[in-house]
Design goal:
The complex is a heterodimer of chains A (about 70) and B (about 425).
Chain A lengths: L6 H12 L4 H8 L1 H7 L14 H15 L6
Chain B lengths: L7 E3 L4 E4 L2 E7 H13 L6 H23 L4 H14 L15 E5 L3 H10 L8 H14 L8 E6 L8 E6 L31 H9 L11 E3 L2 E7 H46 L3 H7 L6 H12 L6 E7 L3 E7 L2 H10 L8 H15 L11 H8 L4 E8 L8 E8 L1
Antiparallel strand pairs in B: 1-2, 2-3, 3-8, 4-6, 5-6, 7-8, 9-10, 10-12, 11-12
Classes of the chains: A mainly alpha (about 70), B alpha+beta (about 425).
């Protein structure tokens, strides 16, 4: 089941703005198995990219871990 | 104070060797960043790699030292291990309470816990994987037992706000991976390149930095250049880095390879920013080196002269300007270690060096290091996420069979 387009993109943008320069690289490692399963490339996500709810949940947890705050998106 | 072990310096190859293990300088920022990469990849079960890599180097080194010095008694062996650990900046260990049946040890001085608190604050989970492995490997070596004899549990950690780090050892196999340390590895006969015109006194700086008393204090801490330094095991860094690289690329293909490579290069940038940056703001730099620097290019030469004393191999500047630079590394520790552990590589593996040269150029040409900025996390993010950056591309790789490892660094944006 896929979510609406743009959610992942907006979450990563929020993480980029609110984390540090290492945040997106850490998230990439943390969610790597699920990224491969989704058949996407995390640093090429666009506003049109749609992914599963499970994947969004994993990215949300990774953002919480690396940024130290809940992502509001 | 003399050490109860021999420290050999191989100036020709830019190596420091203790008990047949090459030791290199790295700071807590790099140590924590590299370890965090493996912890982040929780699906890879890397804790047994972190502990096992430490156990293997400690066991190999101490076994060699005990044979080298004819150290036969367990009490004397324990003293050598304690002193080595403290001297190298890892903290302190009191091994007297441990025997062939294992035991319990606590310490209030542990490099990884101290570094974690300084860098990241309170941790949710224990962080002293290296200390755990060192203890397991050391105890086995002290009693003449094989590596892997002791299982270790890190039951409390100061990084988690515990009053002390606690380790419990039991005579049971398993719990971490066993590796054979390759020792120094195969080194080459260096053919140094001509050094571009610079007033920097390479040999004088190498001699001066090599003579600095960079050894652990009574708490096993080396506080220098604004960081906590360690004289760490090249074979530890190499093992955990390359196991991380191999597993991610094997399990997750190109995306895994890219994620691992990017993370390892980032750890190199972190190292450069904090350690190189700290050195270039230090009283030693200002007294010994800065007076001879006439240009920003000289700052690059000066820092490269210093890091030839780190044990990382012979680093050379082939050319340098604000727009680009070329660096050549003879016997860089990553390539030498890779070939000794895994054979010829299919790709360049000098990730620390790649991040290091990018970080050095960034510090000198973008971060205004000569104006002594505050080197904190916010400034790191500011300079490394700017529109203008320096990107290094490997041109040759000793791990792939080339004579040297080379990088071309270009300013982009």
């Amino acid at each position: 089941m896929t979510t609406e387009e743009g959610t992942l993109f907006r979450m990563l943008e929020w993480a980029r703005r609110n984390g540090d320069v290492t945040t997106l690289k850490r998230i990439r490692v943390i969610v790597l198995p699920l990224t491969v399963r989704e058949r996407i490339i995390l640093d090429k996500v666009t506003p049109e990219t749609a992914v599963s709810r499970e994947y969004l949940s994993a990215v949300r947890a990774a953002i919480r871990e690396t940024v130290g705050r809940e992502c509001p998106v | 104070m003399t050490t109860p072990f021999q420290v050999d310096v191989d100036v020709d190859h830019r190596r420091c060797i203790v008990g047949a293990e090459p030791l290199i300088f790295h700071c807590h920022h790099y140590n924590l960043a590299l370890q965090q990469a493996l912890i982040d990849a929780a699906y890879g079960d890397f804790e047994p790699v972190l502990v096992g890599a430490a156990a293997s180097v400690a066991h190999a080194q101490l076994t060699s030292l005990f044979a080298q010095g004819g150290v036969a008694g367990t009490a004397e062996r324990a003293r050598v291990a304690e002193e080595l650990y403290r001297w190298a900046g890892f903290g302190t260990l009191a091994l007297a309470g441990l025997g062939p049946e294992g035991g319990r040890l606590s310490t209030e001085h542990s490099h990884y816990a101290l570094g974690c608190r300084a860098k990241q604050g309170v941790s949710k989970a224990p962080v002293c994987f290296f200390a755990s492995g060192f203890l397991a490997g050391a105890l086995a070596a002290i009693h003449g037992l094989p590596d892997g004899t002791f299982r270790v549990t890190h039951s409390a950690c100061m990084a988690c706000d515990a009053p002390a780090c606690v380790f419990e050892l039991t005579p049971a196999a398993g719990g971490y991976e066993l590796y054979a340390s390759p020792g120094v590895g195969a080194l080459t006969t260096h053919a140094p390149r001509p050094i571009p015109a610079t007033p920097v006194d390479y040999d004088g700086i190498l001699g001066a930095v090599s003579g600095l008393p960079l050894v652990g204090d009574a708490h096993g801490t080396i506080d220098a250049f604004g960081v906590h330094l360690t004289r760490h095991f090249a074979n530890y860094y190499n093992r955990i880095s390359f196991e991380f690289l191999h597993r991610l690329s094997r399990e997750y293909g190109e995306e895994g390879l890219a994620a691992a490579s990017e993370t390892l290069v980032e750890a190199g940038r972190v190292c450069a920013f904090n350690t190189f940056g700290g050195i270039m703001q230090s009283t030693e730099w200002n007294a010994l080196i800065r007076p001879s620097l006439a240009s920003r290019e000289d700052w690059v030469h000066g820092m490269v002269a210093v890091l030839n004393a780190f044990g990382w191999g012979r680093w050379q500047v082939v050319s340098v300007s604000e727009s680009d630079a070329e660096f050549v590394l003879h016997d860089d520790y990553e390539s030498v270690g890779y070939r000794a552990m895994y054979g010829v590589s299919e790709r360049p593996v000098s990730f620390l060096a790649q991040g290091g040269v990018e970080g050095l150029m960034t510090l000198v040409y973008l971060a205004g290091i000569e104006d002594a900025p505050t080197l904190d996390a916010d400034f790191y993010t500011k300079v490394f996420s700017a529109d203008v950056s320096y990107q290094a591309t490997p041109t040759t790789s000793a791990a792939m069979g080339d004579a040297v490892t080379g990088f071309r660094v270009e300013r982009v944006g």
